[in-house]
Structures are given as structure tokens and as C-alpha cells.
Amino acid sequence: MLSTVVKGVLLQQLVQATVAQVLFLVTAQASLLGVPVQPSIPVQILQVFMAMLVMDTWQYFVHRYMHHNKFLYRHIHSQHHRLVVPYAVGALYNHPLEGLLLDTFGGAMSFLITGMTPRTAVFFFCFAVIKTIDDHCGLWLPGNIFHMFFQNNTAYHDIHHQLQGSKYNYSQPFFSVWDRMLGTYMPYSLVTRRQGGLEVRPLKD
Predict the structure, then answer these.
(1) In sequence order, what DSSP letters do the residues of 30-59 get, joined into one string?
(2) CB contact at 8 A, 61 and 172
């Protein structure tokens, strides 16, 4: 039910916000004036890009392991796959333990490894959430900037939520590098439906 999904997402967001606040307080660095030191724009761009790679790497391997470990899939990850047809509100609908392991730990590692300031991290985390919502929205809209810059997009992740594609397209939320390197990439095609709109279909048997 939608109410169950909303409650689960709000719980996960509360946990992530709490962990982020703790990390910001522990790692905060201030200048002599008491104002946080913000690096140059090029440095911040590099940090965000590196954070994307760290998060993608963490999420690929944890996500894939949750599919291949029958206990973890049955008792934890299957909660997310109850949404056979993904929609935007359910993008972050996970078992609380999965939310902690996959998203919260992945975000914390991205923040700590890259040395981002809290201000840069807030931008990065918001960007990651918006991208994840778009990946689960089920809509292929013209002019979508995410579809222009990322091969890992709505159609790409929709394949993963289909029964035939559940052991493919694990990569999220930014790039498809690990799927392509490790043989878990499933190509797809967009087919125009007679009733209108588009349908994504896997190209592997």
C-alpha cells in the first residue's frame, strides 16, 4: 500500500539525515573565523565525481550480493522488489537494514573517502536522491537531463525490476560500469505501445 511505502521511505530518510548530521559534526573543520572552509569549485566537482564512483562501487557489490544470497534476498531485499512496477515514491522503499547497509553506509563512505565538506555533501546527497527517484519513476520523458548524461536511467533500472532482468543491471545510481565489466549488463529496447507511451523490453533471452 502507498501508506506503507511512504512510512518506510520516511523512516529511511530520518536515519540517513541523523547519520549525516553526526558525520558533519564529527568531521567539521572551521577557519579562524569559525566559518567552514569551502574548497574551490574544481575541487568540489572532483570530489562529487569521486563520490559517485565510491557510491556506485559500494552499491553494485552489496546490491548484487543481496540478490545472490537467498537469505538476504528473501528476508531483506525482496521488500524493495515488491514494487514490480517501480514508481517515484517507492524509489527508497527498502527494508530498514538494507537502507542502512546500501544507502546510508554507501553515502557515509562517499563523504568520508572524498573529504567533502558538509555543504558539498548536501548537494551530492540531494543529487543522488533525485537521480534515484528518476530511475524508479517509470517515465521516459523527452528532454530528461538524466537520460542525456547517464546510461543508467529509468529504462535501465526498470529492466532490473522485471522478473527476467532481476539478475542484471545491478548498478545504481549513476553509472553502468560494473555491470558492463562483470557481465551483468542487460541491453534493452524501448517499444511504442499501441495504447500510447513506451515499454522497455530486455534484449536477452
Answers:
(1) B-TTSPBPPPPHHHHHHHHHHHHHHHHHHH
(2) no
Three-class SS state of 202: strand
Which residues neighbour 187 within 8 Å (Cβ) at sequence distance 6 or greater?
202, 203, 204
pLDDT given at position 175: 93
pLDDT band, residue 33 (cuts 50/70/90): low
Q: Under a CB-based contact definition with an 8 Å cutoff, are residues 188 and 148 in contact? A: no
Neighbouring-strand partners of residue 200: 190
Tell me which amino acid residue 124 is: F
> Is the Cβ–Cβ distance between 154 and 139 less than 8 Å?
yes
Q: Tell me the pTM.
A: 0.85
Q: Which residue has the cell 558533519?
A: 24
